Amino acid sequence: PSDPEVQELVKKLQNFITENYYTCSDKILSELGKMYSGGGDFTKNIDKAGGAGTAAFADQAIQVYCGKC
After folding, report:
1. Are 29 and 62 a contacting pair, CB within 8 Å?
2. How many Cβ atoms are within 10 Å of 36's Cβ, its own excluded?
C-alpha cells in the first residue's frame, strides 16, 4: 500500500473524483476507502473487478496516502 506507484494511483483516483464529481478532500477519500473495505456491495464489486482482497488493499493504500497509517 505504501509503494510510490500505488500512492500515485491513489492520487490519480482523488484527482479523478475531484475533476469529475466533487472536491475529494483527504478526509472524504479516507472515508471512501473505509467504505470500499467495509463489506457490502462496494467490497463485493471491487473484489470482483480486482480479485479477492482488492478492496482491503485499496483502503490500506488510501489510508497511507491520507496519513492515517
Report:
1. yes
2. 22
Place of cell 479516507: 30
Polymer length of the chain: 69
pLDDT in tens, 7-24: 999 999 999 999 999 999
| Cα distance between residue 13 and residue 7, in whole Å | 10
What are all long-range contacts of 57-60, with beta carbons under 8 Å and residues at least 24 apart?
57/1, 58/33, 59/33, 59/34, 60/1, 60/33
What 3-state class would DSSP assign to 1? coil
